[in-house]
Amino acid sequence: MSELISALDALAADDLHALTDGQVLDRTAMLVQLGNRVAAELTRTVRQSDIVQAAEWDGLKSMRSWLIGHARLAPAEASRILRSGRALEHFPVLAAGFAEGSVTAEQVDVVARKVGPVEVARAGEQGIDLGASDEVWARVAVASPHQSLLAAVQAFEDALDPDGPEPDPTEGRRLTIATHADGSVTGRFDLDATGGEKVKAAIESIVQADRTQGDVRTRAQQNADALVQLADNQLASGNLPTLRTVKPHVVVGIDLDDLVDPATGAGAGELGFGATISAARARHLACDGSISRIVMGPDGTPLDLGRDHRVVTPGLRKAVERRDRSCVFAGCGAPTHWCDVHHLIHWLHGGETSLSNSALLCERHHTKVHHGFRVARDPDGRWRTWRPDDTEILIGPLVR
């Protein structure tokens, strides 16, 4: 083990700038293989620890809890290692490819997720040769695209019960969401074919409806914006189930001084699920929301709670929707039910909550306007949009 650590120390001391392109690629391929071999040895070691219940030595009941608590692995990663170790006992050829570095940990997990103890037992009952599948999977993992291995494992699963009852598609659905220290959120989901098709269709409908001229977002950014828009639409509809006696909504707590200060004010607002946002972002959300005043005592105890006040009344929103009919940002045209009512002059700075001081903006362009873009309505009723450098965004025929 000490020799391995010394070898890694030597690698870390290499000057990568001195390498040619070919040498960098060769080094990358070698490190991928080495990483696979280390992952294989970790999997083998964890499996042995699981068998002998080594975690009891440190007072824990399972290797999963040990990996989470002592190695600080994410729960999903700890589960993956344990699942792979158990599965590889039935597939020696795949295990050998993993040990020599030609098979990746993710490829092993493709098999382990689908072929557990239940599937192994059923294969034995039906006389299905696991050895043949093991050789095929190992060969496909080394020589074919990742999708081919998925298809090969799925074919094995289908062969176990070709005429059996249709499985419940919801059993394999998973959605995990993690909130980081800066309030940002990452997640992962696993869906069956039908559920995935529904999600893709819903996201695609918004992506295609929001394709404006000059849009430079990547496809991943478009998908993420569409997902947020879906959530925004549902929250705004008022049809979601209640959450602790009230309709679900975005909650922001912020001191009045930070809210009215025109500075960005990083970390000034606290969201309902604990994340922090800037005062600028809180002002954005306050454009079209409800405001409650809470007077706090010096010891942090609430002394007085004011009545909840809706900034934009339902009647005003109807009037703005009837006048604007869609997002007014140049080139957009998103439908009214995607949009917030934006104060052209924020009510915090003396702007009236009135029809003349309001504009309908979709979630994406509302954010743009709070980050330097500007919209204004001419006396003839035409909306115009300016970039942060005060150049106007003009929509017209393309110049070729």
Topology overview:
Blueprint: H1 2-12, H2 21-51, H3 63-69, H4 75-88, H5 92-100, H6 105-114, H7 117-125, H8 130-143, H9 146-160, E1 174-179, E2 185-190, H10 193-209, H11 219-237, E3 252-253, H12 256-260, E4 269-271, E5 276-277, H13 279-286, E6 290-291, E7 294-296, E8 302-305, E9 309-310, H14 314-324, E10 339-343, E11 358-362, H15 363-369, E12 374-377, E13 383-386
Antiparallel strand pairs: 1-2, 3-4, 4-5, 6-9, 7-8, 10-11, 12-13
Helix pairs in contact: 2-4, 2-5, 3-4, 4-6, 5-8, 6-9, 8-9, 10-11
How is this structure best described in words?
InterPro entries: DUF222, HNH, HNH_nuc. This is HNH endonuclease. Belongs to the Rv1128c/1148c/1588c/1702c/1945/3466 family. The protein is of the alpha+beta class. It folds into 3 domains: 164 residues, no CATH class; 79 residues, no CATH class; 73 residues, no CATH class. It is 47% helix and 12% strand. The protein contains 15 helices and 13 strands. The strands form 6 sheets. The protein has a 3-stranded antiparallel sheet. The protein has a two-stranded antiparallel sheet with strand order 1-2. It has a two-stranded antiparallel ribbon with strand order 6-9. Helix 6 packs parallel to helix 9.
